[in-house]
Amino acid sequence: MVLLTKNSAATVRESLESAFKQTRKPDEVVVVDGDSTDGTLDILRQYPVKLVTEPGLGFGHARNLGVKESTEDIVFFLDSDCHAELQWIEKILPHFADPQIAGVTGQTRLWNTDSGVARFLACVGNRVDMPTRHVYVEIAPTMNLAVRREVVFKVGGFDETLHRGEDTELTFKVAQQYKILYEPEAVIWFQGSPTLRTATRKCFRHFIGVGQLFAKHGFNPSFVRFNLLIRGIILILATVSLFFLPWYVPAILFGWLFTEFVYKTVKMYRHYHDRCVVYYLVFFTFWSLVSLAVFYGMYLGLKHKQKLIKPKSFPH
Fold first, then answer.
1. What does each C-alpha distance from 194 to 117, 202, 309 come to in angstroms?
2. Are 166 and 101 found together in one domain?
3. What does the pLDDT look like over 148-187, one tens digit per residue?
4. Where are the beta strands (DSSP E) in the chain?
């Protein structure tokens, strides 16, 4: 099992407890710490983990380091703000008897329900009413993922140049050659982003990563929902049109945006019956502009692509 931490003193103990209390015990727990300064290390030293320090080179580098330090044939990934239900490993392992299955993921449920922001993001991220049957998926999050270690090597590991989305890209590459199964009874509870500030920072890095993925793999709808990006572009066009075009042009554009905002908010409330949907106002305005970071990510991705002479191998 590979667990990433950095200043996770508030949550990492529950993560580790859930790992060591599994009905099927993990063979090992490798913790990759990003030089924590908040007491995380004091907690980690209370558990029989293999502790590795990561110098802050990004999530991709940290995950690759964890895989390299692991000796398990099947590597389980768990985040330090998540905890696993006690049968998590037990529910996943039997699926690897099928040689065509290279990865298994499962349900992710929000435990931080006191946060309206976290609840809202869980709603828009389709993590509230998740499927209850087995399906094959193309991408999966590392907060709930088990994958064959040899397959990680074969597909080149996690891309360390990505700002975020390294798990999206890895599982996308795995799914091109193998199968990734969704097991609904393999459940992880996650914290989510508790504040608007945290959520916005993650959103910004996410869209930079999406742009990098577009530059590397082309425009794939599996990487992102295009509606937020489209709203950001229309919002900018509507604002610019106020100064250069007849009044009815910005009126139409702003009217369309407002209508879509009301429609989405009402639709979400009727589905979830949760007042957290009011955060759609922020999602509709500020975050739609933040999503334009995808173009910066595309620039970074294309720039990196031009520098590559040949792909780097992923060392065992």
1. 6, 11, 42
2. yes
3. 999 999 999 999 999 999 999 999 999 999 999 999 999 9
4. 2-5, 30-33, 50-53, 74-79, 82-84, 101-110, 135-137, 145-148, 179-190
- Provide the whole-model pTM: 0.88
Domain ranges, residue 143: 2-194
- The CA distance from 157 to 112, in Å, is 31
What are the angstrom distances between the C-alpha of 53 and each of 104, 161, 184?
27, 19, 33
- Whether residue 279 lies inside any domain: the answer is yes
Cα–Cα distance for residue pair 64/4, rounded to 1 Å: 11
What tens digit of pLDDT does each residue of 13-62 get? 999 999 999 999 999 999 999 989 999 999 999 999 999 999 888 899 99
Give CA 185 to chain center in angstroms: 20
Residue 314 has pLDDT above 70, yes or no: no
Residues in the chain, total: 316
Identify the pLDDT of residue 208: 93
Count the Cβ atoms, other than its own, within 10 Å of residue 130.
13
Q: Are residues 89 and 138 in the same domain?
A: yes
Those residues with Cβ within 8 angstroms of residue 117's Cβ, 6 or more apart along the chain or in another chain: 192, 193, 194, 195, 196, 198, 199, 276, 279
